[in-house]
Amino acid sequence: RLIPEVRIVEVGPRDGLQSIKNAIPTETKIELIHRLRKAGLRAIELTSVVSPHRIPQLADCQQVLADPTIKLLLANEQEDLRLPVLVPNTKGLEIALSHDVKEVAVFVSATEGFSKANINSTVQQGIEKARTVAQKAIEAGIAVRGYVSCIFVDPYDGPTKPSSVLHCVKELIDMGCYEVSLGDTTGAGTPAKVTSLVRFLERNGIPLDQLAGHFHDTYGQGAVNVLQAYLCGIRVFDSSVGGLGGCPFAPGAKGNVSTEDLVFMFHNAGINTGVDLAKLAESGRWITERLKQPGSRSSQCVRELR
Ligand code: HMG
Ligand code: MG
């Protein structure tokens, strides 16, 4: 097997599904995870353990984690297979640990408006909650990934100061996150903004190999933002099968950049991702048809170019 030159973190089962209104059967969520794994994805965010009042779609997170086939995946999780679960607080962490999860993701916002809407906390309170979760997770011997939301724009407060992003990234690294994913929650980013922020973080001592890009595709800039971040030296990208995704507390924001688009783009440039594009595209068609969502355009390309 070729060593992937780019690592993709598939967030479809979590970010992809969290804002879909109609209840998706738990079995569909479980099958999606297996299909993604069989397509060669080596990092899949399985679900989130958050307030079911806030994210009703993922209220069945414990059923997903307790499923025997998912348990088997978790038991065989190794260095080259990561299955993080998003948690906002110690309650979420404790539930995740009770299901033998080996990695959690904590999340903070660089901006006050989204922080209040998303987790009912100020930015600093959010950082403190994330720190408590990270400390307990590390004590329990599991890995912690971090997210910073609203790296460019907050849906309530407008443009974000790069220094606010830097503050959150530093705090997340300091609390022990092995990697921090830069979340363009509203999809307002463009390649010029990506370069400017990545260079700013780099100048301020943030190692590029601890950063990942998490771009939402609201204005069609997702793939070009990924490419630009790649050209700046970032090698880890979050994406969602079929371009599903969005946060209900970021009004107007659309799905994540589609995993199909990234794999198609990188493979055509000779950059390996370790993902089987044909299998991935098939999974994308399967889930988006089921959810009556438009799906990724590059999955049609895979058919036509075959
Ligand atoms: P709160 O509203 O301040 O109130 O919640 P609370 O702490 O008193 O809890 C409210 C209720 O939730 C209680 O239940 C708790 O027990 C329960 P009740 O007694 O009313 O029946 N609860 C939980 N249940 C299950 N698991 C838990 C949990 N915690 C509390 N872990 C809280 C604060 C942070 C919990 C809430 O606001 C919340 O869950 N927010 C999460 C919202 C969310 O999931 N947003 C989407 C993910 S972030 C994202 O999409 C951005 C990202 O993709 C990057 C990017 O794009 O930028 C990561
Ligand atoms: Mg997101």
In short:
With about 300 residues, the chain is an alpha/beta fold.
Task: Describe, in plain words, how this protein is organized in 3D.
- With 306 residues, this protein is an alpha/beta fold.
- The protein is 45% helix and 13% strand.
- The protein contains 13 helices and nine strands.
- Strands 1-9-8-7-4-3-2 form a seven-stranded parallel sheet.
- Strand 8, helix 10 and strand 9 form a beta-alpha-beta unit.
- The longest helix has 17 residues.
- It is globular, with a radius of gyration of 18 Å.
- The model has no long low-confidence stretch (mean pLDDT 95).
- It binds 3-hydroxy-3-methylglutaryl-coenzyme A and magnesium ion.
- Magnesium ion binds next to loops.
- Its EC number is 4.1.3.4.
- Keywords: Lyase, Metal-binding.
Mean pLDDT: 95
**Share of residues in helices:** 40-55%
Oligomer: single chain
Major β-sheet strand ordering: 1-9-8-7-4-3-2
Structural class: alpha/beta
Rg calc: 18 Å
Sequence of secondary-structure elements: EHHHHEHEHHEEEHEHEHEHHH
Distance between the termini: 22 Å
Strand fraction equals 5-15%
What is the tally of helical segments?
Answer: 13
Ligands in the model, by name, code or SMILES, are: 3-hydroxy-3-methylglutaryl-coenzyme A, magnesium ion
Largest sheet: 7 strands, parallel
Q: Give the low-confidence spans.
A: none
Number of strands: 9
Shape by Cα distribution = globular
Catalytic activity: (3S)-3-hydroxy-3-methylglutaryl-CoA = acetoacetate + acetyl-CoA
Enzyme class: lyase
Domain Pyruvate carboxyltransferase: 6-281
Protein name: hydroxymethylglutaryl-CoA lyase
